[in-house]
Every structure is written in structure tokens, then in C-alpha cells.
Amino acid sequence: MGEVKVIGSTSSLFCTRVEWALKLKGVEYEYMHEDLRNKSPLLLKHNPVHKKVPVILHGDRAVAESLVILEYIDDTWKQNPLLPEDPYERSMARFWAKFSDEKAISQASPAVELGKTIMGEVKVIGSTSSLFCTRVEWALKLKGVEYEYIHEDVRNKSPLLLKHNPVHKKIPVILHRDRAVAESLVILEYIDDTLKQNPLLPEDPYERSTARFWAKFGDEKVRISVLNSLPWSEGEEKEKAIESARESLSFLEEQIEGKTFFGGEKIGFLDLAVGWIPLWLGIMEQIGEMKLLDAEKFPSLHEWSQNFIKIPLIKEALPPREELVDYFTPSVSYMRSLASQKQ
Ligand SMILES: N[C@@H](CCC(=O)N[C@@H](CS)C(=O)NCC(=O)O)C(=O)O
User: Fold this and answer.
1) How many angstroms does the Cα of residue 271 sit away from the middle of ligand 1?
2) pLDDT in tens, 235-268
3) Domain GST N-terminal, which positions (predicted)?
4) Regarding beta strands 61-64 and 148-151, do their DSSP bridges make them parallel or antiparallel, or are they unpaired?
5) Does any ligand 1 atom lie closer than 6 A to the CB of residue 184?
6) How many angstroms does the Cα of residue 335 sit away from the middle of ligand 1?
7) What is the Rg, in whole angstroms, of the alpha carbon atoms belonging to the chain?
8) 3-state class (DSSP) for residue 320
């Protein structure tokens, strides 16, 4: 009957249940990632009524509404039945599935409500070129939270930023229910505590502390050691800085060895914290004329880096490479001119 395509978003629980059904039936499908902030003509064409994901395309037909899709899948592929045979039991399964969507989800905790917030309830004060802001966007997307982005020019800070982050005067800041939270790693934890679905931190206290430890290490050691190698174009200072950056990367290599993500099978807190490596580190390598994340020296970190950046939800929040090059180039030239004056 033709191939199966799923128009969906990995952060949507409604899409995930469709994926589960297809996998249980052993049906292969192509996943077409939808950016819900900027809906595609394909989605609007195939679900003009609700304009929502998931939609499955089977041959030349489209089916929308996840529970309807599950029944379609069950009717079409008979192996591993999802609904029982007995009509009463079938009706009970349908009754409770509907109940769970209409009552349990929508009337659940404020945490779930956060995931469904309309634009405007969660605001991010940020700048697309900031790696600290991007990690916050990733966390919100993973949780399925819609948010309004308030672009900040850090070279000319707004009264809004200064009001909500008077201590550091830095981005990102998130505004949620008239309250402000600053410092990106603190924001990730706030998001994780507020919205329980798709947890970022593991449950186990020791594993949580380990993720926090390495996230802090990533910001304070890895990132700083990379920045320290930028002011020098060559010479002993540069060699020393590169060596120190490689040493800190080797700790991360040990953390990712044998795993798909730092969080295990799923993206977790530490993946978001060091998620700047695939793009930002590459740009610093380019502008700084150096190679740090060598595939031979750091095979696991290198592989993670390549895979992480290809995940649609991660990719869609990344700034264009050129924007970052333009942003960092003048700062590096400036650092270099200061360093050469000192020499
Ligand atoms: N530790 C902070 C660092 C944030 C940060 O450095 N933000 C930069 C943008 S990438 C900023 O706001 N810079 C403005 C400034 O330093 O005045 C966090 O994790 O949020």
C-alpha cells in the first residue's frame, strides 16, 4: 500500500505513541520532523482541521489524531494486535485512552500545564549566538514548552535584562509566571523541576550529582581552556593552551565512552550542557586555526558530536554557522591584538 511517513515532533507524546505502535507492528517509516513554531505546508495540507502533529501518510492517504492513527495502524497491520478482540474490552480500552487525553493530561499538575503553555507564558531573553541560550531552548523544546524569544543585544543591554538579571546582567534569563530565572544551568534545572516529562537529570542522586559536576566542568574548564587558546596565533603559549584544552576534552571522552548520549539512551542534562561542542568548538577551531576535537584522539566524543548535531530538535535551535563566525571573528582579532601588545 506504499510507504509510511510520520509528520511529527520528537518532543510530542502524541507522536511518540504513534512511533511505538509502528515499531510494535514492525512497520518501517520515515520521520518528517515538524517545527511547530513554523508549520510546514505539508502539515497544513494533510491536517487542515487541527493543524497538529502527528499525521501519518500511508501511500497517498493521510490520517491525523494520534488515537485515530493507532486504530488505523491496528486495522491495517494485523500482527501484534493493540486492541483486544472482545468488543467490550475494546470499548474499555478506547474509553480510558480518551479519558487519559481529555482529563488526565489536561487536568494534571501545573507541570504538565507548563508544557502546554501558549506563547507568551514562557519568555526567553537571549541571543541566538549564545551557547548558554541555545541550551535553554533545547531544554524547552525537549519538554515541549512553547516560548516567546526576546532577542537581546548584549552590546547594548535592555532595561528588561538589567531588571531581571541585575546580578550578572547576562543572558539567558527566562520569565515564567512573572518570575525570572537566570544562569543557564540553573534554568535547565528549573525547567526540569517544573515539568516532569522527558527528564533531563537522572533520578539517582549520585548520577544527578555526576551530571551536574561534568556540566560545571564543561563550562569552567573545557570552555575556558578552549577560549584561552584563541589569543595566540602560534608559539609556546598557544601550545600550552591547546594541550590544556585537549586534556579537559579527554575527561569528557571518558564520560561518553560506550554511550549514545551523556544521558545514556536519551539526551540528558549533560548533553545540553556540553551541546555547544559540536558547533561552537568547531568555529573556535576554525577562527583559532587549531584542531582540538580530533576524531582519532577522541573517537567517542567526536562521534557523539557528529550525531548530536543531526538530531532535528537540536539542529533547529542552532544559529547559522556564518552568524557565529561573524560574531566571534572580531573578538578573536581583538584578543590577539591585546596579547601581541603584552608580548
Ligand atoms: N554562566 C552564565 C554565562 C552567561 C553568559 O556569559 N552570557 C553572555 C552571552 S554568551 C552574556 O550575557 N554576556 C554579556 C556580558 O558578559 O556582559 C550562564 O550559564 O548563563
Assistant:
1) 19
2) 898 999 999 999 999 999 999 999 999 999 999 9
3) 2-81, 120-199
4) unpaired
5) yes
6) 18
7) 23
8) coil
d(CA 190, CA 201): 11
Three-state SS for 229? coil
Residues in the chain: 343
- CB of 187 closer than 6 angstroms to any ligand 1 atom: no
Which residues, 6 or more positions from 335, have their beta carbon under 8 angstroms from its beta carbon?
Answer: 230, 231
The C-alpha cell of 320 is what?
A: 547559522
Phi then psi dihedrals of residue 85, to 5 deg: -80, -40
- Point out the ligand 1 atom lying closest to the alpha carbon of residue 130: 10
Q: How far apart are CA 209 and CA 177, in angstroms?
A: 28
The pLDDT confidence band at residue 274, using thresholds 50, 70 and 90, is very high
Q: Under a CB-based contact definition with an 8 Å cutoff, are residues 14 and 3 in contact? A: no
Residue type, 132: F
264 beta partners: 261
- At 116-170, the pLDDT tens digits run 544 348 999 999 999 999 999 999 999 989 899 999 999 999 999 999 999 999 9
Upstream peptide bond of 330 is cis (omega within 30 degrees of 0): no
Q: What is the pLDDT of residue 108?
A: 47
Grid cell, residue 306, equals 557528529
The cell for 155 is: 552590546
Q: Which residue CA neighbors atom 1 of ligand 1 most closely?
A: 183
